[in-house]
Design a protein that fits this description.
about 160 residues, mainly beta, Lipocalin, 2 domains, 2 helices, about 10% helix
Length: about 160
């Protein structure tokens, strides 16, 4: 809290907030140790074991209304949340694009990702989320859009 805010609180408590003859009392802000640090939940133990294997580049495909579509999933961070880029290209239409995903790593390698913002949006496409499981060098599951089915990607780096 700023010095001005502490001063206003002190004046109001003394009943002089509206008086022109108020005595100014400076109260220092609380020590830094009095402010609790933000709490970030740690992933469960099984997720921490799977976490190092998730960061990297994954390639494969997914199935949606437009048909089979190439997918490159770039996982950049796992803790405290998963951060990734979903890059796709559809050979039949020539459409391609990319967007960011954020999500959580659960027990036993379960991953849930939701789209956050477009990086490169082709006309007529929507961002989709993913939910699946990592097992070794394979990440597979479902795309969380009603017109879509599953995905499967393999680690390439």
């Amino acid at each position: 809290m700023s010095r001005v805010a502490w001063l206003a609180i002190a004046l109001a408590a003394a009943g002089c907030a509206e008086s022109n003859s108020a005595t100014v009392v400076e109260i220092p802000p609380p020590a830094q140790a009095d402010v609790p640090a933000p709490v970030v939940a740690a992933p469960p133990p099984a997720a921490r074991e799977a976490a190092p294997g998730l960061v990297g580049e994954w390639r494969g495909s997914y199935e949606c209304a437009q048909g089979a579509t190439n997918l490159a999933l770039h996982v950049t961070r796992v803790s405290p949340e998963v951060a990734a880029v979903f890059e796709f290209s559809h050979e039949g239409s020539g459409a391609s694009g990319a967007y960011e995903l954020r999500g959580q790593l659960g027990a036993a390698g379960e991953v849930s990702l939701v789209p956050t913002r477009w990086l490169d949006r082709p006309p007529g496409y929507v961002m989709v989320g993913m939910r699946g499981t990592v097992s070794g060098d394979v990440f597979r599951g479902t795309i969380t859009e009603p017109s879509c089915r599953g995905f499967q990607v393999r680690r390439v780096r």
